[in-house]
Queue: 4 jobs
Job 1
Amino acid sequence: MTRTATTDQALRLLLVDDEPGFVEALGRRLARRGLDVHMAGSGREAIRALRRADFDVAVVDLKMEGMDGIELLRIVKAMAPELPVIIFTGHGSERAAREGLALGAFDYLLKPCELDDLLATIRQAAAQSAPA
């Protein structure tokens, strides 16, 4: 499910990564920049969050234990086809991230990336998916 953020509402972001320290630190940094961040530590947790709430954008780590980012992307696109998903990847998995683009991901970013680059991509994804 997605929703459209208005100018006086914070963008609702679903941030999914199985590294607790990373997801918490990044989530705090994005929240300080005005985003309403919901953090999920696994693909299953992300699916539960999608069932309970609407989001403007999802940022999903590619390499996770259990359900990887590509599998989660497929499920998200079945549940909420209009939700923009940004793949976040490290470990030299750029080829797999390109596969994500073919499956409907909005974009992918390589870890580590500058916070401003991530924010710009999140805002671009939210703006592109907003109804005219």
Job 2
Amino acid sequence: MIQFLTTESGSVASLLVTFLPMILIIVFMYLILWLPQRKQDKKDAAMRASIEVGDTVVTIGGVVGRVAAINEKDDTFVLETTSDRVKIRFRRSAISSVEKLDLGNASKDSAAKKDTPAKKN
């Protein structure tokens, strides 16, 4: 009976040693590959959900323009490009980056920079 338990625990130990590297590789891949990608996907979804009329947008195709209208019903927006006011309709998933429209902050920032004296070394 003692030999039977020893043989059984020996086979369990050898099974564990056999599958341990595979388990460690799967855990390593999850931590290194999937978690950062999931975080990036959440950031991208938040960025796409935060677009407003007037924001400057770059699409994944490289089209740059301002958001002229947003249609929440079918998840699209109208992008106004060039000075000729050419309007193109895109899906929200086509947004690569968003630059928020700052109406009042730009003049405040430039005035604050002019008021602060420059340090001399």
Job 3
Amino acid sequence: MKHCNKNNHLGRISSHRKSMLMNMSNSLIIKKQIITTLSKAKSLKKYIEPIITKSKNNNIQSKRMVFRYLKNKKTVSILFKKNFDILRKRMGGYTRIIKISPRLGDYSKMALIELIGFNKINNNNNNNNK
């Protein structure tokens, strides 16, 4: 039976899955958006949203807690800088998943996952409307 199996295992062992999600979250924080499969994007959303919530408190303990998940000093310092105040003001829902056309090779569902507030197109439209 499949009771209480909430997380998607993605066909990987736990250590590989954790390192994959860690690397994808580092890339998402640095680049602000990445393209991946839909199932990986959904798993990444469940992984990164609590990390961003923990980064709202700018103290040593929260930095250590975030470093436990990301294991990259550069990414942690980027996450605690001023330009991430856009995400700190939000109550939740820091990421957006947009479905895009399937991959040509194996026709798997693809998605673009991005951090809300860093989209250049939406920010330019909001600035022009003011």
Job 4
Amino acid sequence: MNTLEIRWHGRGGQGAVTAGEVLASAAIIEGKYALAFPEFGAERRGAPVRAYTRVTNNPNIPRTPIEKPDVVVILDKSLLKHEYIEGLKPGGYFIANTPLKPDELIKKLNLPNSFNVSTVDATSIALKWLKANIVNTAILGAVIRTTNLLKIETIINVIKSRFPGKIGEANAMAVQEAFENTIVMKLQEAI
């Protein structure tokens, strides 16, 4: 792995920024270099939010917006639009919070057969474990399942250390359930 660039799209309050930070922390624990940073527009709950995470073997990590990501993660179903997929590299990963299966999402959005598609109903999982529509930890399970970038145990350990007690345990359960329930459609399967 040289560098894996991830662009997160969510709404304020869903935890896109935190998801990127947790992933970066886990990458560092596993011996990689990583950087996570947000890009805000109107800073209010519910407003569209972009966050970025770079994971690399190189200590010199640029802090610039990711225009051509290897991975695009959509935390909010209302953002399932072509404009948010823009720039995704051919062969990259499109990971979405939706109850749709990957083939259904491909048809709905008329997606090209140029990248891998994964789906998970992170909203239902978050509501089950957290009793709130905060989908960041659930979507992290989908990211790990799709990319195999890191060990799921490392993500869970970072979450438990960042959110101690019952909140950490509930978030760990959300990660694990999403990891187990993510449906991954590899590029060759979509053709």
